[in-house]
Amino acid sequence: MSRPGRFEGIGAPGDREQNAVEVTVQRVGDDRASRGRDLLAVEEPLEIRLVYGPARKRVRRSITVTMRTPGRDVELAVGFLFAEGVVRCREDIEGAVSCGPPAGPLGVRNLVRVELASELAIDEKRLERNFLTTSSCGLCGKASLDTLPAVSRIRLPDGFVVSPSSVHHLPDRLREAQPVFDRTGGLHAAALFDGSGRLLDVQEDVGRHNALDKLIGGQLLAGALPLSNRLVLVSGRAGYELVQKALAAGVPLLAAVGAPTSLAADLAREANMTLLGFVRERRFNVYSGGHRIRRRVGRPPRWQGSRTPPADGTDGS
After folding, report:
1. pTM of the prediction?
2. Whether the Cβ atoms of residue 305 and residue 284 lie closer than 8 Å to each other
């Protein structure tokens, strides 16, 4: 039975207007310069505060500041706490609210307060993370290696299978659902699909780990975890922290437009997760869990892409 919590700021209508800001630029060509206007993705700090402990002895603590694109801040905070192992389900959270005074010319609220269930036991060691999280990495600044989320023992079940054609269409469907990227070119995205390649949700942020936290946080609040019959596509590369977050949510297949890292591939193999890289131009590489890609009988496996990055020299990051 779901706990009737208080959640304010989830998918607020005004979020999208805070994702981009118009600025004046000087455009320089071969032999001339001109003034014009451009749109930039907004990057603002977000403080996550936690309220926890017995009803008569509540503790209030600021646990982290992350640089993010405003919007879906409650989902971001919840997804972050889930990936860190602080909460495991919606019932662990009594409420979450986007609050704080409006800051800067955009009037963005840069604070989310999450209240945990009074009976929830908290490992104080998990909260030893008072540092600035950059928009590029979700693990930088850990107080010690011991505070890394313990997910390496998780083994995902078999059973989820997708066709190569479903994977080939994922990047196009992702781009069609990226409104802010089309306007700014400056955001990462994380998208949730079913086994047939149908888009279920997409979140954008300047930080790839933030985008995935927003996606998973929204699914947790909807009571949809674990995501055992879903796949996730991320723009850019797939690092260890993205595999760790997807694994915690029970995602059996993680695909990336760019390359994975060696540590990401190691973790995916240990966890029986399917990890795909360079998903673009109707090809992709399988770095682990190839048994979840359906092959055509009697034909060569077209889903195996080249190990060589694209000719344009990019890695999708």
Report:
1. 0.83
2. yes
Tokens for 12, please give them: 């607020």
Nearest-Å Rg of the Cα atoms of the chain is 20
| pLDDT of 106 | 82
- SS3 assignment, position 218: helix
Q: Which of 44, 51, 50, 84 is nearest to 67 (CA)?
A: 44
**Ranges for all domains in the chain classified under CATH 3.40.140.10:** 164-292
As to burial, measured by CB atoms within 10 angstroms (0-12 exposed, 13-18 middle, 19+ buried), residue 138 is buried
Residues in the chain: 317
DSSP H helical ranges for the chain: 73-83, 164-168, 170-176, 179-184, 208-221, 240-248, 262-270
Question: Is the per-residue pLDDT at 1 higher than 50?
Answer: no
Phi-psi map region of 178: left, alpha, beta (phi>0 left; psi -120 to 50 alpha): beta
Strands, E assignment, 187-302: 188-194, 199-205, 230-234, 253-256, 274-280, 283-288
Q: Report d(CA 142, CA 148) in Å as an integer.
A: 7
Instruction: Check whether 14 has a pLDDT greater than 50.
Output: no
99 labelled catalytic? no
Chain-centroid distance of CA 286 in Å reads: 21
Q: Indicate the average pLDDT of the chain.
A: 83
Cβ neighbours, 10 Å, residue 202: 21
Query: From its phi and psi, is residue 175 left (phi > 0), alpha (psi between -120 and 50) or beta?
Result: alpha
Query: Could you say which DSSP state residue 259 is in?
Result: P
Tell me, rounded to whole angstroms, the distance of Cα 305 from its chain centroid.
25
- Domain 164-292 is in which class? alpha beta
So what's the pLDDT on residue 181? 64
Q: Which tens digits make up the pLDDT trace of 93-118?
A: 999 999 988 888 888 899 999 999 99
